[in-house]
């Protein structure tokens, strides 16, 4: 991972419970990163925790901008940022990576966000506006006070903000707002998993093909992060070590017990930091990172979450 020391240049309350953060290189050098909308960065917190946040701004502004929601169930990431960050604070920031890119072309773009899911979609919306590409944004929030970037979106005929609906209301509104699919059109959604599932379901009902639908995962879907089968023999070929995977252990944990540190970042199968080559064995993929083709090849695995279908797994580490 390519880490850069950055300094907080400004903080702003974007909406109730959402903190806007502008970061610039700490050493006053130009920011050399380029990224496409949908990209995120890793932020390494004082405690060593690493968290991913979408970039809300486009490349070329000399800074990165994030919007962080204070999660009620925060394990220290968003809470620390909200409570401890000050103008001038330093943070280590990983180079942008993009697992949720806006597809090329001039086809119409439909963006459907809920809550803090607005962050990657706002960058996509800004890019479309800049490129004069047709785009519509539909943004669901709990109340007007919870709507981030409302000043920018107010009065924009292509952006619709919807507040305070329950599940049935969201579904009815989607049914009313989602147009029938037209060739070249793509739809991107980001928000809580059940919300995205509803969006995709309603889009499919409106005739959108699966290949035109894209969703962002802020966290691995519930129930998908499971541990590999206990008793699996894990062979770490380059280090010449092997270890039995214990009950409740990830492959990364088991390797660490054998003295082999596999680098990790998100620990949720999302960032690709722990990507490792498989030399033997049949991986059971549980990540959100690999493409279907990479999974089918059996050549790579994300050991922070994935397991193995065979009794023995040999990794190149
Ligand atoms: S640490 Fe992020 S995918 Fe494994």
SS-derived structural category: alpha/beta
The name of the CATH topology of the largest domain is Rossmann fold
Give the fraction of residues assigned to helices. Answer: 10-25%
Low-confidence stretches: 220-227
The largest sheet, given as strand count, sense and whether it forms a barrel, is: 6 strands, antiparallel
CATH class of the largest domain: Alpha Beta
As a whole number of angstroms, the C-alpha radius of gyration is: 21 Å
Q: What molecules are bound to this protein?
A: FE2/S2 (inorganic) cluster
Mean pLDDT: 90
CATH architecture of the largest domain: 3-Layer(aba) Sandwich
| Order of SSEs | EEEEEHEEHEHEHEHEEEHEEHEEE
* Strand content bin: 25-35%
Tell me how many strands there are. 18
Task: Give the neighbour order of strands across the main sheet.
Answer: 4-3-6-1-2-5
Instruction: For the record, give the distance between the C-alpha atoms at the N and C termini, rounded to a whole number.
Output: 17 Å
> CATH-wise, what's the superfamily of the largest domain?
Nucleotide-binding domain of ferredoxin-NADP reductase (FNR) module
What is the domain tally?
3
Count of helix runs: 7
Please write out the topology.
Blueprint (H helix, E strand, L loop, with lengths): L2 E13 L2 E8 L14 E5 L5 E5 L9 E6 L7 H8 L5 E5 L14 E6 L3 H14 L3 E7 L8 H4 L5 E5 L3 H11 L8 E5 L2 H13 L7 E3 L17 E4 L4 E4 L6 H7 L18 E5 L2 E2 L7 H6 L2 E2 L5 E2 L3 E4 L2
The structure holds FE2/S2 (inorganic) cluster.
